[in-house]
Amino acid sequence: MPPIHRRDQAMPLRTLLVHGDADSQMPVRMSLATDVARRHHAKLLVIFALQGRSAAFLYAQHAPADVVSRQIRAERLRAARIGARLADRAARAGIGLAWRAIEGRPDTVLAQQAAAADMLVLSQDSDDAASPLVAPVTLAAGKPVLCVPRGGPFASCGRRVLLAWNGSREAARAAHDARPFLRQAERVILFTADDETSAGTSAEDAASHLAADGISVEIQRAPLNRRDPGQAILGAASDHGVDLVVMGAYGHSRLREWAFGGATRTVLRSMAVPTLLSY
């Protein structure tokens, strides 16, 4: 039976680490992270991964040294401008924000810096992403990841929560990591597929444990009927109008690259609301 963590081990949210970049989804994930930080009295840490120097090694033979040097300086300057702008906006909103620019691949940098935060905030990978972030960061960081769907914005996150439950260690970890959200939620649905539950903790025992921490949950069951468990989770989230899905992440290392298992991959490919992943 996978352990369900003691209530005094559930830590509050104090620091949210946000992936800093100049991509089109940066305003969406910053908006959501700011809203979560405000509700939980947390601060924000924005991490920019600088790849200019590593790119210089790849293209040094094809580009003059002064061109490469200018690209590196421009990347640092861009991160500094974005970081300063974000810090100013956060200060006006009464939220503490610090930012750092660190050289390295984004997945490596974010996973390494996760030790300085309670949760990471990343955007959903695009279908054609050359270097996906969510899988390698979630499976290597050792901290929960709040994945924000592309598009947005989102009016709320964590008021109506669907907790996907199959009795596994990963599900128990997700329930533990989501405690700050579950305690503030107006409604928590513990969703389980009768033919998917493992030999671990039952939905009733999980609900009883959460109730001991003052978290009231509704148990909802649905048969898979040969559906992918991920599709069942997506359907339940839509049916109940939730604004946050919480689930355990399942993954493995393949050819030195981290990859998600089927249900997790299905949810993240078609997600419509923010999803909290724990591994």
UniProtKB/TrEMBL annotation:
Listed CDD domains: USP-like (cd00293)
Domain UspA: 160-277
Matches recorded under Pfam families: Usp
Gene3D superfamilies, sorted: 3.40.50.12370
Highest taxon in the source lineage: Bacteria
Family note: Belongs to the universal stress protein A family.
Name of this protein: Universal stress protein
Organism per entry: Vineibacter terrae
